[in-house]
Amino acid sequence: MFRWLVNFGFLALPIAATIGILLGIQSQREASGQPPLFVPKLDNKVVETTYCQKSFGVHPETKGQEYTLNPNQWGWTQGDAGFLCMNVTTFNNQTYATNTTAPEWKIFWQYPQATGDGNNVHAFSNIMVDGGVFPAGLKSVSKIGIDVTWTMRTDNDTGPADAVALAAANVNANVAIDMFMDSDKSKAGDSAKATYEVMVWFAAYGGSTHTVGQDVGVVATLNLNGTTFDLYYGVNLNKQNVLTWKATAPAQDFHGDLRPLIDEIFKLGRTGYPTEADYLGYFSFGSETYFSDKPVTFSVPSLSVDVRTN
Ligand SMILES: *[C@@H]1O[C@H](CO)[C@@H](O)[C@H](O)[C@H]1NC(C)=O
Ligand SMILES: *[C@@H]1O[C@H](CO)[C@@H](O)[C@H](O)[C@H]1NC(C)=O
Ligand SMILES: *[C@@H]1O[C@H](CO)[C@@H](O)[C@H](O)[C@H]1NC(C)=O
Ligand SMILES: *[C@@H]1O[C@H](CO)[C@@H](O)[C@H](O)[C@H]1NC(C)=O
Ligand SMILES: *[C@@H]1O[C@H](CO)[C@@H](O)[C@H](O)[C@H]1NC(C)=O
Predict the structure, then answer these.
(1) Is 158's C-beta closer than 6 angstroms to any atom of ligand 2?
(2) Membrane-spanning regions, if any (predicted)?
(3) Helix, strand, or coil here: 165?
(4) CA gap 151, 90 in Å, rounded
(5) What pLDDT is attached to residue 22?
(6) Atom of ligand 4 nearest to the CA of 294
(7) Which of 50, 108, 153, 294 to mutate to test the pocket of ligand 4 (most atoms within 8 A of CB)?
(8) How confident is the model at residue 28 (pLDDT cuts 50, 70, 90)?
């Protein structure tokens, strides 16, 4: 009802705070009988908006599955070299192709390579599944249906990713789903505190895009609807267990249910792996951007995340 407020977002705060604060203000106005601050237009117009903030929650109003988008330049500070902007395309009628279709979005960016052992991940620009879907007990999550098409290019053409051009421009970036899990419901939704991070990498361009535990070797392999994923396990600097399913070749057009990847982790049942007793608290899809010699456009013309629980 009032979530569209964040659309206009005047406050460049961490997204949790932005939504909390604006919801607070709006509920107060409603409780005291004041009219809402803005009235959304319900015509059929398509609006493309650009966000170049370091971190910013964009929460388009929708009649279907809710999403929050964020440029999330966590490894970059205003004034540093490099840039990233996110374009989000919203429908004023709040009705997308299906009830789980996300707004179309893209990022265009360029960061220099850090020297020495500086942090080379500058951003994880992403779209997060929102609207009370999580936390969900992993036992009850019956399906995580993904339909996604993405492209990554060094020009503004709309064709598929060009691995040769990306390599020539020394583009270092991945395309990934990021999930967090924990036995504690609230920690499961906190990327810094959750015990487990489970990722699904659809592509990794450039030598810096190593998964945690990649050097240890492949733990398991699974094929999902034509895409082969290798599992890696390791512990990150924050002492979190990181399990990464990495596609053996870029998967730019993926349609399938991720639940078998989670089931395989349960089946392996090793120390440091999540179990059915844990909660899935966070789910997002995006690109970790490291560095590039040329401006890069990562575009997501079509995405749907259909999470079913029973
Ligand atoms: C909503 O707007 C989009 C973009 O103009 C259009 O494609 C779609 O058909 C509209 N849906 C409805 C239910 O009006
Ligand atoms: C991003 O959106 C703006 C409108 O806000 C548009 O002018 C620009 O062409 C878009 N950029 C790309 C790379 O699509
Ligand atoms: C979307 O529609 C399907 C079938 O029409 C329904 O089963 C599902 O629960 C809906 N999902 C959401 C998020 O509304
Ligand atoms: C691609 O689009 C961006 C944003 O609209 C623009 O700044 C850039 O110059 C374009 N790049 C090329 C290679 O045309
Ligand atoms: C497998 O992929 C094809 C095309 O990429 C798609 O039509 C089909 O629905 C997918 N199957 C599942 C189970 O998602």
Answers:
(1) no
(2) 6-25
(3) helix
(4) 19
(5) 39
(6) 13
(7) 108
(8) very low
Does the beta carbon of 156 sit less than 6 angstroms from any atom of ligand 2? yes
What is the CA(131)–ligand 3 centre distance, in A?
14
Q: Which helix (H) or strand (E) holds 22?
A: helix 15-31
pLDDT tens digits along 83-137: 999 999 999 999 999 999 999 999 999 999 988 767 799 999 999 999 999 999 9
Give Cβ neighbours of residue 144 (< 8 Å, ≥ 6 apart).
257, 258, 259, 262, 283, 305, 306, 307
Q: Which contacts qualify for 263-266: CB closer than 8 Å, 24 or more apart?
A: 264/220, 264/222, 264/231, 265/198, 265/231
Ligand 5 atom closest to the Cα of residue 145 is: 14
Domains of the chain and CATH, by start: 1-39 (no CATH), 42-309 (2.60.120.180)
**Alpha helix (H) residue ranges in 46-198:** 163-168, 185-188
**For residue 6, is pLDDT > 70?**
no
- Which residues, 6+ apart, have CB-to-CB distance to 65 below 8 Å? 99, 100, 101, 102, 129, 131, 133, 304, 305, 306
Looking at every residue in the chain, the average pLDDT score rounds to 89
Q: From atom 12 of ligand 3, which residue's Cα is the shortest distance away?
A: 99
Give the binding-site residues of ligand 4, using a 6 Å CB cut-off. Answer: 108, 155-156, 295
- Contact, 123 vs 76, CB < 8 A? yes
User: What is the 3-class SS of 246-295, one letter each residue?
Assistant: EECCCCCEEEEECHHHHHHHHHHCCCCCCCCCCEEEEEEEEEEEEECCCC
The protein residue with its alpha carbon nearest to ligand 2, atom 14, reads: 87
Atom of ligand 2 nearest to the CA of 297: 13
> 259 CA to middle of ligand 5, Å?
15
Q: Cα separations (Å) of 88 from 7, 46, 50, 97?
A: 10, 10, 7, 16
pLDDT of residue 12: 31
